[in-house]
Specification:
mainly alpha; Arc Repressor Mutant, subunit A; 2 domains; 6 helices; 8% strand; rod-shaped
């Protein structure tokens, strides 16, 4: 049995109790609303659930070996039914859950968009940084290779190295070194700009 149907049955029990104006046996409710598909114990269970929710809605008496044998309406019963009863409570609870689920869906979509944004921008910056570090390494390797080449040329002289050749080789080394230093400074400036831009996001 659905919770909505149970809420409707509880309201029907309360309306019937208002109609009777005095104590009556639970059997009347069972015969009126539940027979033959449900048991008498189920009717007694619904009455206990009403009392658990609010003891002022219904009055009960035990007897004949049962905890709930007779019942009657109380002063608060009419007002409770006028406000919608258990059926209205069920509807409000369902609406509350619907709003919660809708809100949860919005939060998940927002988090998903944020996650997508992070995963699409961060790898892009990481690739650029790796590329710049690769260029930096290439510059360093180029400098070492140039130094090695000049040293090899000087060592290939058979007997001696003239002052002119030595000065020329040193000058070439200085020019190459200056060019490589400028490239290194440019790469460092680009990396610092990238880091400062990422820190400001």
């Amino acid at each position: 049995m659905s919770e909505f149907f149970k809420a409707e049955l509880k309201d029907k029990f309360l309306r019937y109790a208002l109609f009777r104006d005095d104590f009556f046996e639970v059997d009347y409710l069972y015969n009126e609303f539940l027979h033959p598909n449900y048991s008498l114990s189920f009717a007694q269970q619904l009455i206990l659930e009403i009392q658990t929710y609010d003891p002022d809605l219904i009055d009960t008496m035990s007897g004949n070996g049962a905890k709930v044998f007779m019942l009657s309406a109380k002063a608060a019963t009419q007002e409770f039914l006028d406000q919608g009863g258990f059926t209205q409570l069920f509807i409000q609870e369902e609406e509350k859950w619907d709003n919660f689920i809708d809100h949860l869906g919005v939060v998940r979509n927002t988090d998903k968009r944020k996650t997508i944004g992070v995963t699409t921008t961060k790898p892009k910056y990481r690739k650029e940084k790796l590329l710049l570090y690769g260029l930096f390494s290439a510059v360093a390797i180029s400098f070492i290779f140039t130094l090695y080449s000049i040293a090899t040329k000087l060592m290939q002289k058979e007997n001696y190295i003239s002052v002119t050749d030595f000065a020329k080789s040193v000058n070439e080394l200085k020019i190459e070194n200056k060019r490589l230093e400028e490239q290194v400074l440019q790469l460092q400036a680009v990396l610092q700009l990238k880091d400062s831009t990422a820190a400001g996001l």
